[in-house]
Amino acid sequence: MEEQELAARCKRGDRAAYKELYERYAGRLMGISLRYVADRDTAEDLLHDGFLKIFNSFDKFTWRGEGSLKAWMERVMANTALQHLRKNDVMNQWIALDDVPATYDEPEPEAVDTIPREVLMQFIRELPTGYRTVLNLYVFEGKSHKEIASLLGINEKSSASQLTRAKAALAHKVRAWIKKNA
To answer: Does the model's pTM come out above 0.85?
Structure first.
């Protein structure tokens, strides 16, 4: 079934279409959930919460061409994860700034390309929540530091600092993995 037809059937409340939607997109949306929360059980809870929001708000979805359903669902999932993080006040649980350097040397792109995607995603999941959240919003969601600051209730400079420290921590993990596995 094409995306447009699937969206139209979901909008009408077709349970078979809901099932297909879940089966088609659950893996992708679980990946988004895992980018924001490191705990798999919490990520699964967020996945289900996100799908409930999707199913209950199809009246707000507007078809804008191929890929618009997927993009809308991804935004709903990211917002569900952010809502969870704000609700649990995890954004105020930063680690000490002395624990991660403010500058870093990026590994060679060719070397990074040798690391399996699952390993890189695990490195992201291992980041402290604040670092991981800012990194996700900036890199994967394309948000500016101003937008991130507004979403998370932090200062723009804090957003930029957290991103730099997230990148430094990732660079350290990547270099260690390359050294061990090269």
So the answer is: no
